[in-house]
Design a protein that fits this description.
The complex is a heterodimer of chains A (300) and B (529). Chain A is an alpha/beta fold. Chain A has helices spanning 43-50, 72-76, 94-105, 110-119, 133-145, 163-178, 190-196, 214-219, 261-271, 283-292, 295-299, and strands at residues 5-14, 17-27, 32-36, 58-63, 79-82, 151-155, 182-187, 199-204, 207-213, 222-229, 242-248, 251-257, 273-279. Chain B has helices spanning 7-17, 21-43, 47-58, 61-67, 75-82, 84-101, 103-108, 110-115, 123-149, 154-181, 185-208, 213-217, 219-225, 238-257, 281-317, 322-331, 337-369, 373-377, 383-417, 421-431, 434-450, 457-475, 479-482, 501-523. The chains are: A alpha/beta (300), B mainly alpha (529). Chain A binds chain B through residues 14, 48, 51-55, 72-74, 76-77, 79, 81-83, 85-93, 95-101, 103-106, 124-127, 129-130, 140, 153, and chain B through 107, 183-184, 186, 267-275, 278-281, 283-284, 287-288, 291, 370-372, 374-382, 523-527, 529.
Chain lengths: 300, 529
């Protein structure tokens, strides 16, 4: 079976700005893939290239086994897309937009449409101009989730949704996965990604800086250790892979790279351990580590 | 905190945002009466010629219906009447400006952003009204100064200028009230334009019927009743002042009784599911364009009926005035002055139809920048299908508008000359304007495909064509310059002999431009930034 999304060395420039700078991204069949990055890192640009709306300047892009630019129309029948900011036609009702987009994709499941409207608590009779930001987003989500497609491309789809609706959204993404659909979920809501995604790609400055399962990513990063020892500490600071060591009498706190964890713990047990708390890195820490390393992005 | 706190800042914001638009309409509308006066001085230098024109044309019921009554045969009186339709445009510009800076802002959510700062409750409405009132007064003063500069009496000039300014002020306040009633700027504009239409209808009925009391009820009837240049009745100016005060007295309390973003009239609900016709790009385009097309057709049908009815008398009235006869025959065909008049009218309709085509084509750019094109093009819709769904309206819309105009003119004209054959002749003459309009629409499509950010320049190209067509003969420009405008090549169908070749060439050019637009759209990024 073909890989739904396969991108390597993708480059896209807008004038002098290099929006994508050799991006790699692989999404496997049936997985929910988190696409994480700060504002302006190139997530939406990547998605627009995948949709054949923007033309790649360099690199290889395969979508559902085809070329997204050349085979756009045939490929689009097999996917559904929700933009991060759904804008509606002011004089069309939400229900009309859902049906229109569904029909243009090749039909939607009326039973699922009704279920979705019900669980998202969306009134389909309101005109486009009368919806709030969150409700416009729901119109886009209902239209996409009610379609019978293999691939869902969601670009920050929950912006403007309240926590209750966020729950509903997660339920439907899980259901899509159970039905065997593949999901590319671009987001900067880490809790959402942690709750839903099998694998994650982190993008910064138009380049993928991390990619793998959450477990893989954690493995690459540091664990925080907070321990109380039987006696005074020595010889830990020399160990490779130990960072930010702070001691306070017999209490010791430090971060350790995953490969050095074994050696560090052995050293601690040699000294005698009274209590020990070990905290694996959260996605948030992974995320922040990458972003803090790029102060130029903040000044942009 | 006072209810007006922050008004000063909002006024500056409005002036900053409208720094091109506002001076433009003020200047254009102020210059036109002056140019009318100048041309009356030139065309009818003697009292006898003016009397003949007044009796034959200015007192013709169709002319009175369109422009308003005439109270004498001085150049001033004729100029005041000729400027009658400008009052409608002044009213329209004023009410749209106020809505643009009140309800449009609120609908877009920008009002909320400002409302959270130190801003009095009345500041928004007050700032929009103040700027528009000031623009209207400036317009009135410029108009008056311009008229006086042509040699017309100062009292009448200022009487007319003030009357025009106060007409604008009444409709600005109507806009301020309409903006409180609906949630959407579109709805508010609809109410404002409906009021303007009702005022026009009242004035039309009052001026053409034996008894003119309906005109006294219409804000569009007051300016004429000031009787500028024919024994000014200054007290009539109190009517628009009182009407504005009354409207403002209703609008202000409403503006604070409702929530920010909400209107007084509840929004209507739509259907929960889409009808069978809303299934693809063409179904969607029909929904997006049909309202516009309907209103253009209705407007042009009404204008056509009035102008067609006036043609016969217009042809008769210039008979005897050598200079005017010559000009009219230069403008249109030589086979008859009525034909010349109708030919000139239809070429104006051709320019307007091109305006329809350009706006329909540029709709695609609006869809693109608003982010509504993207989700559609991410479905199984081809770019070409999406483009063609709008191009259909950009090309067929002008045909509909022109056919309706020609038919309407033909209807009243054939009745007034008792010749049923004029119906088909006028419709054909209307349709002959379409190919030139298509070229402009095609240019807009090409710009959209090739250089989307420059797409609005299609309006500038249309403006150039208007200027070449209207001023070319006056300024005695070189023929090659005039030939740049496709409208120069539209044959005078009302003449006895004309060739269809230019029409085929224009059509081929328009199709080539559209095809080029399609090709370039296929190659470019969407959205183009």
């Amino acid at each position: 079976m073909e890989t739904p999304i396969e991108v390597s060395g993708l480059v896209k420039t807008f004038g002098r700005t290099r929006a994508l700078d050799g991006l790699d991204l692989t999404v496997r069949t049936g997985e929910v893939h988190g696409f994480l990055g700060p504002n302006g890192s190139g997530k939406s640009t990547t998605i627009r290239v995948l949709l054949g709306l923007l033309r790649a300047d360099a690199g290889a892009v395969r979508l559902l086994g085809g070329d997204p630019w050349r085979d756009a129309v045939a490929l689009h029948r097999r996917l559904a897309y929700v933009p991060g900011d759904v804008t509606l036609w002011p004089n069309l009702s939400g229900g009309e937009v859902i049906d229109l987009l569904g029909r243009m994709r090749g039909g939607l499941d009326p039973k699922r449409r009704a279920e979705l409207l019900d669980s998202f608590e969306l009134d389909p009779r309101k005109k486009g101009r009368a919806y709030s930001k969150g409700n416009r987003q729901k119109v886009g989500l209902v239209a996409a989730l009610a379609s019978d497609v293999e691939l869902l491309i969601l670009d920050e789809p929950t912006s403007g949704l309240d926590p209750l609706m966020e729950e509903v959204f997660q339920h439907w993404v899980r259901r899509a996965k159970q039905d065997g659909r593949t999901v590319l979920l671009s987001s900067h809501i880490l809790a959402e990604v942690e709750a839903l995604c099998d694998r994650v790609t982190i993008i910064r400055n138009g380049r993928a800086v991390e990619s793998g399962t959450l477990g893989d990513l954690r493995h690459l990063h540091r664990t925080s250790i907070d321990a109380e020892l039987a006696g005074p500490l020595d010889g830990l600071a020399e160990l490779p892979g130990v960072h930010d060591l702070r001691t306070d009498g017999n209490r010791v706190r430090f971060d350790v790279d995953t490969p050095a964890l074994d050696a560090a713990l052995r050293r601690l047990t040699e000294l005698g351990v009274r209590s020990l708390v070990s905290t694996p890195p959260t996605l948030e820490e992974l995320f922040l580590r990458h972003y803090e390393a790029a102060p130029e992005e903040l000044t942009r | 905190m006072s209810t007006l706190t922050g008004t000063r800042h909002l006024v500056r914001l409005i002036l900053r945002r409208d720094r091109f638009l506002l001076p433009l309409w003020v200047l254009v509308l102020a210059v036109l009466p002056m140019s009318y006066a100048a041309s009356f001085f030139e065309l009818f230098p003697t009292a006898a010629e003016r009397a003949a024109y007044t009796a034959g044309t200015a007192r013709n019921p169709s002319i009175i219906a369109l422009l308003g009554p005439v109270y004498g045969d001085s150049v001033g009186a004729l100029t005041a009447q000729r400027s009658g339709f400008l009052l409608v445009i002044v009213g329209l510009a004023s009410l749209l400006t106020v809505i643009r800076h009140t309800r449009t802002e609120e609908e877009a959510g920008r009002r909320e952003l400002l409302g959270a700062t130190v801003l009095g409750r009345y500041a928004g409405l007050t700032a929009a009204l103040l700027v528009t009132y000031a623009a209207d007064l400036l317009l009135g003063l410029l108009t008056a100064a311009g008229l006086a500069a042509t040699g017309l009496p100062a009292a009448g000039s200022y009487g007319f200028g003030l009357a025009a300014a106060l007409t604008g002020i009444v409709f600005a306040t109507v806009g301020g009230l309409a903006a409180q009633l609906t949630e959407t700027a579109g709805g508010a504009r609809g109410i404002g334009i409906a009021v303007l239409g009702a005022a026009f209808a009242l004035r039309l009925v009052g001026d053409t019927a034996g008894n003119d009391w309906p005109s006294w009820l219409s804000p569009l009837g007051w300016a004429a009743r000031v009787r500028p240049f024919e024994g000014e009745r200054w007290w009539v100016l109190a009517l628009p002042l009182m009407a504005s005060a009354l409207l403002a007295a209703v609008a202000y309390p409403l503006s604070v009784r409702r929530d920010v973003g909400a209107g007084m009239l509840p929004p209507r609900l739509g259907p929960a599911t889409a009808g069978p016709s809303l299934a693809g790009p063409f179904g969607l385009a029909w929904r997006l364009h049909r309202g516009q097309l309907l209103w253009w057709s209705v407007g042009f049908a009404l204008l056509g009926l009035i102008l067609g009815g006036a043609a016969e008398a217009a042809g008769r009235s210039v008979a005897g005035n050598r200079q005017l006869e010559e000009i009219m025959s230069r403008l249109g065909g030589a086979s008859g002055l009525a034909d010349a008049y109708l030919g000139a009218t239809l070429s104006l309709a051709g320019l307007a139809a091109a305006g329809y085509g350009v706006q329909a084509a540029l709709r695609m750019r609006t869809e693109e920048t608003a982010g509504r094109a993207e989700p559609l093009l991410a479905t199984g819709t081809r770019r070409s299908a999406w483009l063609l769904s709008h191009v259909v309206f950009a090309l067929l819309g002008p045909v509909v508008v022109l056919a309706v105009t020609g038919l309407a003119i033909g209807l009243t004209y054939s009745i007034s000359v008792h010749d049923a054959g004029q119906l088909g002749r006028m419709t054909a003459a209307g349709l002959a304007q379409a190919p030139a309009a298509w070229v402009l629409a095609g240019l807009a499509v090409l710009l959209f495909g090739l250089a989307p950010r420059l797409a609005p320049a299609a309006w500038a190209l249309l403006a150039v064509c208007v200027l070449l067509g209207q001023l070319g003969a006056v300024l005695q420009l070189d023929q090659w310059l005039l030939d740049l405008s496709p409208f120069t090549h539209t044959p005078q169908v009302l003449r006895t002999a004309w060739s269809a070749t230019p029409l085929w060439l224009l059509t081929a050019l328009a199709l080539a431009l559209t095809a080029a637009g399609l090709t370039t759209l296929h190659r470019r990024d969407i959205p183009a930034t």
